[in-house]
Design a protein that fits this description.
The complex is a heterotrimer of chains A (about 300), B (about 550) and C (about 300). Chain A has about 300 residues and is mainly alpha-helical. Chain A is about 80% helix and about 0% strand. The longest helix of chain A has about 40 residues. In chain B, helix 9 runs antiparallel to helix 11 and helix 16 runs antiparallel to helix 17. In chain B, the strands form 5 sheets. A 7-stranded mixed beta sheet of chain B has the order 8-9-10-1-11-19-12, with helices on both faces. A 6-stranded mixed beta sheet of chain B has the order 14-18-13-17-15-16, sandwiched between helices. In chain B, strands 4-5-7-6 form a 4-stranded antiparallel beta sheet, covered by helices on one side. The chains are: A mainly alpha (about 300), B alpha+beta (about 550), C mainly alpha (about 300). Chains A and C meet through helix 1, helix 7, helix 8, helix 9 and helix 10 of A and helix 1, helix 7, helix 8, helix 9 and helix 11 of C.
């Protein structure tokens, strides 16, 4: 029930975003026709192209047409490629979603053990190192981190390809490892510290002492009681960061030459290819809403005391 | 811990020895259709055994392939680096420019000019066929050229304005009637947009025809699965030069990130890359897996002054600023000496370039004196407009800024994304800007008109508003002057006058820098930035 | 995330007593702070960086913008402690001035989002019901909005320079704080003792300010310490993508970006400013952890 309600609430959110984007795009200086035609384009040619694209109409008419199209489920056709936006997005969504999925998995795999060790060995050497080292991933921009990973693991050691998506599934996987790692490293320092703090707070709770005094083994105590409570704010943070990751794939996709939605969005913005920007925005917005929903649901499951309103 | 990491990284990187890390992601429509003279790198020479047939050539480019908005229609397509160098593999033109920058007949055997210079008669080469096997005739040529010049949306149709009509005299002869004597005509016919298509598109609609284009070029369209990312061309089995092309397939990939492009060339993932960042040239030269080709180009980077802004309507101001520009320093620092320092607004590889004209060379004293003569002797505040994504120009702008500061002109740098930058300068909404001028053909008329003839050049003198009636007269006369020596004199005068007027100042002449693997043979780039692939083979 | 009341096996009556305890303890917090190693270490590192930045006008050796095209890309020497960059400018001087700008910017730009976010998140988590629904949906919209479209629009709306990104950050960054604080507040709220406190006559504001906030804010602080680093790097990342954000000169981020071209030969050009950002991050994280320790009730 709650899920249905949230999904219904999601519709105006996603629609709202798409509509706002529609207007914002047309307010930004820069003209797709001019961009396409370049230096040699004459004013007449530019005007002709704009007319063909319906850009000379007053903005309300353009908006009305856009709504009509949307009502038919049509997200329009790319101005630059003359293929439906749907097609463009479909050809690239796999790349981006795989990248985000891998990055999430890596984040979890790296964060959980390290945060646990840091919490247990609080203030000792392991703790300090674990909290400091990943900060390099945070302090250096993604494009630098990605580059270093390429130079070390792809160029020097030859374990992975330099970039690109590849043609077969094994190649896809190999090609995604370094990019996913780069993305993960950007958020791991944050997640480690958040989880560590969460665990510490719970570890100090009386009820933990009570559980221990009842003789439960340490590990079980940890897993069952600490994890459940500690993990919630970190989970929220992870959810937020996955949403961030979706947008941030732009940089990683560029560094590793992956033709995903991020790079599509970027080139569409550069080209002022309005329909494509709108289409990708729609997809991104939808993903974020869904991820938020999943995060909230998971948190509720872990801690029934968080009653979903 | 970070120190450790640095050590490790440096060791690892030095071991590889090559990958310098330039991050000059060059914007999508920075005109890199340069062009020019003799190439300093001769076509790649591979094994001594003859050409081998077969194989797939992968080319990594910093530009997207043809944007489909205009499809694959050469007469109507909007020019961009991505489509120019793709289309010229599918279709061919009557003339071409060879790697040395010299105009050569390609689909033509010989030509004759009438006494009044108003009629050209071209004898077409025999045995030329389209990729569907049908022979190319004069009808096809006449139809194509008329379509090209009458196109309302083709970016380059302005070159054809002097053509009154093109007619087929007989199946092997074409007559071109001009409205005035026009020296650049044959050169104009080498522009990619004057490509020869079958008459009436073989009876198909535009949509049908361009889904599967028919041209005389060495390759046909293979597939275009990922729009904006990759395009594949396949061999034309009916190519009129028998035995060619050697390659089975050509794959164009888009690789926007500079490092990726270079690294993929070094690892062999791609065989040829364009737009090698100047900062990496030295390092790449030391890598024996790739050869670096620095090809002179008909390309000039300049700083332009908007004469609709009061400061720059004043010639003394412009001249003063010209004196503050250390072009040698700029060429050395920003292009690592891969580009020559600027002088004339013609690049050295272009016909009728004159290297002997007096220039306003770097001289701060002269700059101050010049500014003192102007209406703003105490300097003023101003702005330099540049697009994002161009490291070379970003550094150059900072150097210009420092130079102008010396004479009291305080410039801030205004960096905008490419579309906004275009919007601004085309709307004359800038004060100074850095931009690039190119010539697509071997004849300098294109550049001269575009930059000096506000009425006929189509851009109001490259959006500066520069209008020197004497220069305009000379430019128009030079286009109509059939005698080469006289033309040369006129262009020398034009270059000298422009240098003194300083409506813009040439900063450097950027070459086309490519890198290609050791298996690639026969690859060379002409000064227009184009490369032909029918003679390229993989060892 | 308050623990004592949760873990208490005694009955509800003790919860009021526990609250009293919390009140008493807030002053000894300062004493705790003085003994917390993390806090001290973090504060020290940041202190050094900030001092260097503040002293920049006096300890730089050349004007940071002064070019010298005959002395480009020099290795460190007595004349130039960290060498020169591509335009012959002294790297040490640029590093100091870049730090001045970046540290100030980072701290200031994060203040607004953390304030707005904490307030909104707390309200949503405390009052629940329809305020929560409305605020949560607003958070959803802002979070789902494509960052780059927003940035580009703001840059053009606000005009040249870096103000665009500041405003964009203020507008988009608060959501993270809001959501984390909301979750924490919800957890505490469920503990039931806030009802007891209300029954005991404490006003909403008092409850929020003295009892809920100190507990929920730890997670927000944890995030803030990395957020400052994100801000410092945001400008250059946008520059890398070609989105028309102009990096001020000098700035650590743009120094990293410019130095990229020379990784094999002059690796320090890129790595040293990066190191400064990393150090800032370490200082902030130690500080954040220390604060979290101090604020966490026993």
């Amino acid at each position: 029930m709650y899920v249905i309600r949230r999904l219904v609430q999601a519709i105006p959110v996603v629609l709202g975003i798409t509509i706002i984007t529609f207007f914002l795009l047309r307010l930004i200086p820069g003209d797709p026709a001019m961009t396409l035609l370049g230096n040699r384009g004459t004013p007449e040619q530019i005007a002709l192209l704009r007319a063909r694209w319906g850009l000379n109409e007053p903005i309300w008419i353009q908006f009305w047409l856009f709504l009509k199209q949307l009502a038919h489920g049509d997200t329009g056709a790319s101005l630059f490629y003359q293929v439906p936006t749907r097609t463009l997005i479909a050809s690239r969504i796999g790349v981006t979603m795989s990248l985000v999925a891998f990055a999430t998995v890596f984040s979890i795999l790296i964060t959980v053990p390290l945060a646990t060790i840091a919490a247990i060995r609080k203030d000792r050497a392991a703790d300090q190192v674990i909290r400091a080292v990943p900060l390099v991933g945070l302090g250096m921009p993604s494009f630098w981190v990605g580059l270093v990973l390429i130079l070390v693991f792809a160029v020097n050691l030859g374990w992975f390809p330099v970039g690109g998506w590849g043609d077969t599934i094994p190649e896809h996987i190999y090609g995604l490892i370094l990019p996913a790692l780069t993305s993960a490293l950007a958020i791991v320092p944050l997640l480690i510290r958040s989880l560590r703090v969460g665990m510490l707070e719970v570890l100090q709770a009386d009820y933990i002492a009570t559980a221990r005094s009842k003789g439960l083994r340490e590990l079980r105590v940890l897993l069952v009681h600490v994890a459940r409570n500690a993990i919630i704010p970190t989970l929220t943070l992870l959810g937020i960061n996955i949403a961030f990751l979706i947008g941030a794939t732009v940089v990683v996709e560029r560094v590793f030459q992956l033709n995903g939605l991020g790079s599509l969005m970027l080139s569409a913005i550069s080209n002022r290819d309005f329909p494509v920007v709108q289409g990708v925005t729609f997809v991104f917005a939808l993903s974020v809403v869904i991820i938020n929903l999943v995060t909230d649901l998971t948190a509720a499951r872990l801690d029934p005391r968080i009653r979903l309103s | 811990m970070s120190w450790e990491k640095k050590e490790f990284t440096r060791r690892g990187v030095l071991k590889v020895g090559a990958a310098g890390v330039g991050l000059m992601a060059i914007g999508p429509v920075v005109a890199a259709c340069g062009g020019g003279g003799e190439s300093s790198a001769s076509p790649s020479a591979g094994a001594s055994s003859g050409p081998k047939t077969g194989g797939r050539l992968v080319i990594g480019r910093a530009f997207q392939p043809t944007v489909q908005a205009s499809g694959l229609d050469p007469h109507n397509v909007a020019v961009s680096s991505g489509n120019v160098y793709t289309l010229d593999k599918l279709y061919e033109t009557l003339y071409i420019t060879d790697p040395q920058g010299v105009l050569q007949p390609w689909l033509v055997d010989s030509h004759e000019v009438s006494a009044d210079s108003l009629t050209y008669t071209l004898a077409l080469k025999q045995g030329v066929t389209f990729n569907d096997g049908k022979p190319m005739t004069a009808d096809d040529v006449a139809w194509s050229l008329n379509r090209a010049r009458l196109s309302k949306t083709g970016s380059m149709s302005f070159l054809n304005f002097a053509i009154k009509n093109v007619t087929a005299v007989d199946p092997a002869t074409v007559k071109i009637a001009l409205s005035q004597p026009w020296a650049p005509l044959l050169s104009d016919l080498s522009i990619y947009s004057d490509a020869i298509l079958p008459k009436d598109l073989n009876g198909l609609s535009e949509k049908e025809f361009f889904a599967n284009p028919v041209g005389t070029g060495p390759f046909k369209l293979g597939s275009w699965a990922q729009q904006g990312a990759e395009i594949t061309l396949v061999r034309n089995p009916n190519y009129w030069q028998s035995g060619k092309p050697y390659l089975d397939e050509v794959l164009f990939k888009v690789i926007l990130d500079d490092n990726q492009r270079v690294l993929q060339a070094q690892s062999g993932d791609v065989q040829i890359i364009d737009t090698v960042p100047p900062a990496q040239v030295e390092a790449l030269k030391g890598d024996n897996r790739v050869t670096v080709g620095v090809f002179p180009a008909w390309s000039v980077d300049l700083v332009f002054f908007n004469q609709k802004v009061k400061y720059y309507a004043d010639t003394n101001v412009r001249r003063a600023i010209a004196y503050t520009i250390d072009t040698s320093g700029i060429a050395a620092a920003t292009t690592f000496s891969t580009a020559q320092a600027g002088g004339s607004f013609f690049p050295p590889s272009l016909e009728f370039y004159d290297g002997n004209i007096p220039l306003l060379s770097y001289d701060l004293e002269a700059a101050k004196a010049e500014l003192a003569k102007s209406a703003y002797p105490n300097g003023f505040d101003t702005e330099i407009l540049i697009p994002t994504g161009n490291q070379v120009w970003a550094q150059t702008a900072q150097i210009l800024q420092a130079g102008m500061k010396e004479i009291g002109i305080n410039a801030t740098i205004n960096q905008k994304d490419h579309a906004a930058y275009e919007n601004d300068f085309r709307g004359f909404n800038y004060q100074q800007m850095i931009n690039n001028a190119i010539n697509d053909i071997s004849d300098p008329d294109e550049m001269a008109s575009f930059q000096c003839d506000p009425e006929l050049g189509g851009s109001d003198s490259f959006w500066t508003g520069y209008n020197n009636p004497e220069v305009v007269k000379l430019v128009r006369a030079a286009a109509a002057e059939m005698d080469s020596a006289k033309r040369g004199e006129m262009y020398s005068q034009i270059q000298a006058m422009v240098a003194q007027d300083a409506p813009y100042v040439a900063l450097t002449y950027p070459p086309s820098i490519y890198a290609y693997g050791t298996t690639v043979n026969g690859f060379a780039v002409n000064p227009g930035g184009a490369y032909m692939l029918e003679s390229v083979w993989l060892a | 995330m308050s623990t004592r009341p949760v873990g208490s096996t005694e009955g509800g009556g003790d919860q009021a007593v526990a609250l009293e305890g919390l009140v008493v303890r807030s002053h000894p917090m300062l004493r705790k702070a003085a003994h917390n190693r993390s806090l001290i270490a973090g504060a020290t590192i940041l202190g050094i960086l900030i001092t260097l930045a503040v002293l920049a006008p006096w300890i730089d050796r050349y004007p940071p913008l002064e070019q010298n095209l005959t002395e480009i890309l020099q290795t460190p020497s007595w004349a130039h402690w960290l060498g020169t960059d591509q335009l012959g400018r002294d790297v040490w001087s640029r590093l100091l001035w870049a730090g001045r700008f970046d540290l100030a910017t980072g701290f200031i730009v994060v203040l607004i989002p953390i304030t707005i976010g904490t307030i909104i998140g707390t309200l949503a988590g405390y009052y629940k019901g329809w305020p929560d629904t409305v605020l949560s949906r607003i958070i959803d919209i802002v979070m789902a909005f494509p960052y780059y479209v927003l940035i580009i629009t703001l840059v053009f709306a606000v005009g040249k320079g870096i103000r665009g990104i500041f405003i964009a950050f203020a507008l988009t960054d608060w959501v993270t704080y809001a959501r984390t604080v909301r979750s924490s507040t919800l957890v505490i709220g469920r503990l039931g003792w806030s009802a007891a406190a209300k029954g005991g006559g404490l006003s909403d504001v008092r409850i929020l300010g003295r009892h809920i906030l100190p507990n929920t804010i730890t997670q927000a602080i944890v995030y803030a310490t990395s957020d400052i680093v994100y801000v410092i790097l945001a400008v250059v990342t946008l520059g890398y993508l070609g989105l028309g954000i102009q990096a001020p000169q000098p700035d650590w981020g743009s120094m990293i970006f410019d130095g990229q071209a020379f990784m094999t030969t002059k690796w320090w050009l890129s790595t040293i400013p990066g190191l400064c950002v990393v150090l800032t991050g370490i200082g902030l994280s130690l500080l954040g952890d220390g604060l979290a320790d101090v604020l966490r009730p026993e």
